[in-house]
Design a protein that fits this description.
Layout: H1 6-21, E1 30-38, E2 43-46, E3 57-58, E4 67-69, E5 75-78, E6 85-90, H2 107-114, E7 117-122, E8 129-133, E9 137-141, E10 146-147, E11 149-152, E12 165-170, E13 177-181, H3 191-196, E14 202-207, E15 214-221, E16 224-229, E17 235-240, E18 245-250, E19 259-264, E20 267-274, E21 280-287, E22 305-310, E23 316-321, E24 330-334, E25 337-341, E26 347-351
Parallel strand pairs: 1-23, 6-10
Antiparallel strand pairs: 2-26, 3-4, 4-5, 5-6, 7-8, 8-9, 9-11, 12-13, 13-14, 14-15, 16-17, 17-18, 18-19, 20-21, 21-22, 22-23, 24-25, 25-26
GO molecular function: hydrolase activity
InterPro entries: 6-blade_b-propeller_TolB-like, Strictosidine_synth_cons-reg
GO cellular component, one term: vacuole
Length: about 350
């Protein structure tokens, strides 16, 4: 998701007004009692000076990492407290354009040239890391890192260029990559315009690892964002930042090709990740607007949601809370621990 600013608050207020007429606009659903896990008491791994925004996190086939795409266009690797963060990958432009390494120039002014890595995922068979770069397209780098290769900048079936490549996941059996192009109209830096103008030009796409072709699986979508292939590989979950929903696209079985609502969410989702139980973690970049309809409506509980866990059927079973002002872009579960990424913050969180 794009960097938040004051415009986002205004946008969310406008979107929130819809709740007056449509109370279920961003209403979450649950199957029973919901576990609450606070994140504000976890560990923090500060990012290197001058960079921020670990929007997406990934771990390689050896379990090393996390790897994180950050604001200056690089993908960094965490190698433990003794070594810290090191550069793992970068776009073809990163070392060719001096502005990309000029720390005095704000990243917002250079990311369209230097790249802005968002979704990340490894192919466990090959060790390759796939990168959804908001501006440069779908990219890949080998197990040893270095300069990433641009695989695609447009869809092969309709020829339409990518405008805002965002989330991705890899089918670990086939190597196929599923990813989103959040808008055909607005690039990442105009992220809030997607919501303010109710843009529904996003696409859900597939990169075929064998044919090297990109096909559009679904078009005309409202702000498609995070992507996660189900643990049984029968469907792919796609988060829609607006209107706070998660859908599933069936890739196998009698429903293959169908796109159906999986869950209404209590906030504006970013990345989606599989959990260890057959469900999903959904990071919330912002809570939904909570408007008091009348005096009989109970006041909201004083907590700040930054993520939810859904079971395999889409019911909410756990929620993550944080201090006010904290937002999450990614929740990655590994070995019973939660690693937390945020497009806004200058650290990666860890909850044990």
């Amino acid at each position: 998701m794009a960097r938040s600013n004051n415009n986002l608050l205004a946008t969310l207020f406008v979107v929130g007004l819809a709740l007056l007429l449509f109370p279920s606009f961003c209403a979450g659903a649950s199957a029973g009692p919901i576990k609450t896990t606070p994140t504000q008491y976890g560990f923090r791994l500060p990012l290197p000076a001058g960079v921020s925004g670990a929007e997406s996190l990934a771990f390689d086939r050896k379990g090393q990492g996390p790897y994180a795409g950050v604001s200056d266009g690089r993908v960094l690797k965490w190698s433990g407290s003794a070594v810290g963060w090191t550069t793992f990958a970068y776009s073809p432009n990163y070392r060719k354009i001096p502005l990309c390494t000029a720390s005095e120039v704000p990243s917002e002014q250079t990311e369209s040239m230097c790249g802005r890595p968002l979704g990340l995922q490894f192919d466990s068979r090959t060790g390759d890391l796939y990168i959804a770069d908001a501006y440069l397209g779908l990219m890949k780098v080998g197990p040893d890192g270095g300069e990433a290769q641009v695989l695609a900048t447009h869809a092969d079936d309709d020829g339409a260029a990518f405008r805002f490549v965002n989330g991705l996941d890899v089918d670990q059996a086939t190597g196929d990559v599923y990813f989103t192009d959040s808008s055909a109209t607005y690039p990442r830096r105009f992220n809030t315009e997607i919501m303010m103008n109710a843009d529904a030009t996003g696409r859900f796409l597939k990169y075929d690892a064998r044919s090297k072709q990109v096909t559009v699986l679904r078009a005309g979508l409202p702000y498609p964002n995070g992507v996660a292939v189900s643990s049984d590989r029968t469907h792919v979950v796609v988060a829609h930042t607006v209107p706070c929903q998660a859908f599933r696209y069936w890739i196998k079985g009698a429903k293959a090709g169908q796109y159906e609502l999986m869950a209404d969410l209590p906030g504006y989702p970013d990345n989606v990740r599989r959990d260890a139980r057959g469900g999903y973690w959904v990071a919330l970049n912002q809570e939904k607007a909570r408007l008091i309809i009348d005096s009989s409506t109970p006041a909201p509980v004083n907590k700040h949601l930054v993520g939810v866990r859904l079971d395999a059927d889409g019911a909410e079973v756990e929620e993550l809370t944080a201090a006010k002002g904290v937002t999450l872009s990614d929740v990655a579960e590994k070995d019973g621990q939660l690693w937390l990424g945020s497009v806004e913050l200058d650290y990666v969180g860890l909850v044990r």
